[in-house]
């Protein structure tokens, strides 16, 4: 059982989704119950995974028992455990909120929601580049459907842009994978990292091109400056629980960047460019996000721009590229994901009670529950703007401390100014939403208990992260340490390098290796080489080939 | 063969990108399709181009790399699903927004006569 723990976060949502889809039009209450129960089980699974990864061990799960680097592996280290747990916690709040009525505006909400969770968990757990692509597609396809849930002009319009952009992104992803595979001859992340370190100059240039292309794709998902224009309209038009869940979607891009930067491209000459691009792009995103926050005329757009500011902050931290900054980044990531989700849910709660005006920042009718919602809004605002005593301040403080002398000159003013912009915009929004109302009796619906508990579940994270700051930051420190020691990862995952790998030909791709290039090498090494290759083929390759084809074609369905 | 292959890939992606930048949903979808063809061809070539080399060990002296073929198969199926989705989405958008412009608004210039 325990060795199968790694696959459960993927299997559980998948089976739930299939059961929900196959059971057809069962009663809504049954669907809600199943979905909430499955997501609750995911939270428990996430906790188990955290506990397991917390010991510092890296566990690998070879799908179908095909060994790496030929088979596809799932890998659990501290970072992936944290991301899976974070997804589960966020999703639990969203699914509670959705169960109050948002799920009946279209069909199959819960099934698609579970598929989305499957894609997210898979993307966090996989140790294989192409498998990452497959899980990205699963989560994207589910996100397209969730985004359109309920229909409506704004959603369709924003959805069209989102889908087209992401399809182009997927095409680029494939090109990048093709280049990387052509240069290194492997798709396993750890193996690829190992081989990139040993490439000859011309292959290395090819791998760098692939690496940079891959970062462009991940930056599109993470929404960093030149590639963020899809985000505000998409997030602002999505149904509230979906927008809240999407708070983790940008973090998938960030996770992928962290993963490939530390594991795959750690030895690549392209890393310098990647980090520079992330640093400056991140800073510019903070700046433009801050302007967007000030300019937003709708609560939901405002929150979308706040997400953007947090993306910029996280990106610039990942561009700093040292242990302390990554540790601070992970701490801030946990906080900002949950609080952005809470804000999207709160905006919806407020909008529901304001009649036609909805979440637009204009004078409208009185709220039914001004004290309760106002109080929640204030907590969320304080947390997201980064004012003590809540977790936002702590996260930002850690980040600012992590920056070195020259970086501080750039980061500190931007980060603090963005905080100020958030503060100004949120106070303005709060006073319009809660105070600038017409005279008369409030007539909106009272917030449903499930909606309130969903929003509260996410909101509680802000004070909780402060109370638990010490264990959490220990964990994030250890996570960052682990990320910057990819040897442990490689050793767990892969058999030790055979001596063969030190010979020149072994650096080339698998295909070229199977062909003989006699003139390039002397005969003795050729004989050794072909012996090694044939044993390689006999032991591992033949079944692995069949498996790769089978599992790859199997995965996509 | 290499020249022909790269020319085809290049022309496909160039046409795909040109169409992607058009203002109406139908050319955009055709552009996406062309682009995905180009990408599939590119993926196919990433294991190297061979003639008379089946991807079966023992069938020929130098077997081709079978992995790209498996990847292309996956990419084709995923691309197919995505194309189906976006076609439906475009039809919905045409119905809901009243026109087939990607911004949901009729442009002021050109193309209106169609």
Automatic annotation (TrEMBL), chain A:
Residues 127-414 form the NADH:quinone oxidoreductase/Mrp antiporter transmembrane domain. This is Monovalent cation/H+ antiporter subunit D. It is a multi-pass membrane protein. The chain crosses the membrane at residues 33-51, 72-98, 129-147, 159-184, 204-231, 238-257, 277-295, 302-323, 329-350, 371-391, 411-436. Keywords: Cell membrane, Membrane, Transmembrane, Transmembrane helix. It is found in: Cell membrane; Membrane. Its main location: membrane. Pfam families: Proton_antipo_M. InterPro entries: CPA3_Na-H_Antiporter_D, NADH_UbQ_OxRdtase, ND/Mrp_TM. Belongs to the CPA3 antiporters (TC 2.A.63) subunit D family. It comes from the Bacteria. Coiled coil: none annotated.
Automatic annotation (TrEMBL), chain B:
It holds the Pfam family Oxidored_q2. It is found in: Cell membrane. Keywords: Cell membrane, Membrane, Transmembrane, Transmembrane helix. Signal peptide: none annotated. The keyword Transmembrane applies. The chain crosses the membrane at residues 26-49, 70-91. This is Na+/H+ antiporter subunit C. Belongs to the CPA3 antiporters (TC 2.A.63) subunit C family. It comes from Vreelandella vilamensis. It is a multi-pass membrane protein.
């Amino acid at each position: 059982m325990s060795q199968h723990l790694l696959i459960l976060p993927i299997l559980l949502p998948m089976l739930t989704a299939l059961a929900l889809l196959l059971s057809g039009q069962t009663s809504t209450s049954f669907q809600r119950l199943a979905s909430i129960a499955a997501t609750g089980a995911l939270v428990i699974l996430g906790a188990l995974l955290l506990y397991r990864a917390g010991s510092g061990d890296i566990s690998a799960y070879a799908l179908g028992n095909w060994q790496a680097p030929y088979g596809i592996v799932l890998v659990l280290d501290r970072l992936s455990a944290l991301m899976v747990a974070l997804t589960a916690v966020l999703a639990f709040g969203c699914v509670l909120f959705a169960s109050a009525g948002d799920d009946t505006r279209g069909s199959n909400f819960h099934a698609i929601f579970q598929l989305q969770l499957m894609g997210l968990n898979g993307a966090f757990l996989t140790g294989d580049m192409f498998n990452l692509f497959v899980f990205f597609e699963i989560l994207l396809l589910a996100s397209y459907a969730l985004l359109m849930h309920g229909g409506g002009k704004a959603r369709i319009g924003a959805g069209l842009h989102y889908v087209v952009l992401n399809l182009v992104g997927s095409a680029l992803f494939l090109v990048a994978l093709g280049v990387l595979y052509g240069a290194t001859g492997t798709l396993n992340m750890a193996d690829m990292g190992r081989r990139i370190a040993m490439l000859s100059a011309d292959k290395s240039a090819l791998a760098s091109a692939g690496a940079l292309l891959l970062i462009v794709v991940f930056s599109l998902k993470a929404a960093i400056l030149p590639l963020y224009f899809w985000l505000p309209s998409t997030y602002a038009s999505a149904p509230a629980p979906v927008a809240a869940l999407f708070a983790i979607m940008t973090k998938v891009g960030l996770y992928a960047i962290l993963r490939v930067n530390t594991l795959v491209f750690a030895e690549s000459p392209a890393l310098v460019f990647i980090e520079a691009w992330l640093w400056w792009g991140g800073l510019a995103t903070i700046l433009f996000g801050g302007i967007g926050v000030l300019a937003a005329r709708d609560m939901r757009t405002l929150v979308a721009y706040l997400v953007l500011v947090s993306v910029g902050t996280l990106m610039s931290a990942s561009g700093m590229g040292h242990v302390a900054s990554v540790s601070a980044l992970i701490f801030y990531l946990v906080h900002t994901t949950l609080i952005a989700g809470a804000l999207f849910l709160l905006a919806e709660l407020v909008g529901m009670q304001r009649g036609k005006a909805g979440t637009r920042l204009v004078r409208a009718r009185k709220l039914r529950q001004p004290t309760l919602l106002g109080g929640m809004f204030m907590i969320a605002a304080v947390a997201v703007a980064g004012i003590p005593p809540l977790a936002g301040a702590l996260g930002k403080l850690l980040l600012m401390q992590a920056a070195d002398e020259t970086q501080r000159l750039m980061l500190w003013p931007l980060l603090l100014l963005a905080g100020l912009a958030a503060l100004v915009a949120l106070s303005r929004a709060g006073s319009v939403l809660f105070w600038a109302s017409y005279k008369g009796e409030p007539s909106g619906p009272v917030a449903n208990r499930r909606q309130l508990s969903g929003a509260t579940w996410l909101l509680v994270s802000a004070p909780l992260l402060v109370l638990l700051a010490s264990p959490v930051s220990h964990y994030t420190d250890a996570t960052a340490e682990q990320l910057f020691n990819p040897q442990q990862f490689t050793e767990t995952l892969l058999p030790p390098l055979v001596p063969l790998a030190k010979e020149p030909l072994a650096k080339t791709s698998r295909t070229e290796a199977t062909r003989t290039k006699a003139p390039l090498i002397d005969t003795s090494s050729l004989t050794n080489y072909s012996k090694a290759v044939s044993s390689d083929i006999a032991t591992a390759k033949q079944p692995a080939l069949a498996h790769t084809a089978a599992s790859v074609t199997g995965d996509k369905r | 063969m290499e020249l022909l292959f790269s020319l085809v890939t290049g022309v496909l992606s160039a046409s795909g990108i040109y169409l992607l930048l058009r203002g109406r949903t139908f050319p955009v979808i055709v552009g996406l399709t062309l682009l995905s063809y180009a990408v599939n061809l590119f993926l196919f070539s990433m294991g190297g181009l061979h003639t008379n080399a089946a991807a079966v060990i023992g069938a020929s002296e130098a077997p081709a790399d079978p992995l790209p073929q498996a990847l292309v198969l996956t990419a084709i199926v995923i691309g197919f699903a995505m194309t189906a989705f976006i076609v439906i989405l475009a039809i919905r958008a045409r119905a809901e927004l009243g026109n087939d412009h990607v911004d949901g608004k009729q442009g002021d210039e050109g193309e209106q006569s169609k």
